[in-house]
Amino acid sequence: MARRYGRAPRGERCRLAVPHGHFETTTVTAAMRRDGLCAPTLFNGATNGARFRAYITDTLVPALRPGDTVILDNLQAHKVPVVREAIEAAGARLLDLPPYSTD
């Protein structure tokens, strides 16, 4: 993100501010239906088991309808036991992608 060229008065050095190392991670988690996104949420920082469990119980489960299918990949946060119980209690089906899936 640093510029390689710049202008400065003759004999003076060209100094420009460059961002370096002070970034924050924002995680977007949402469900997708045929007609668009459903149950979106934002987290400051990475997703862990506690945050994902809170997303499932507080945001996703109220938006689920009986007969829906929830597909999760192999992220360790998706393996929390409460996740499967909450989704199946809402009448939805849970599918886990196989390890090393290209999907």
From TrEMBL:
Domain of life according to the entry: Bacteria
GO molecular function list: nucleic acid binding
InterPro entries cross-referenced by the UniProt entry: RNaseH_sf, Tc1-like_DDE_dom
Name under which the protein is recorded: IS630 family transposase ISMdi20
Residue span(s) of domain Tc1-like transposase DDE: 2-103
One Pfam family, short name: DDE_3
Native source organism of the sequence: Methylobacterium gregans
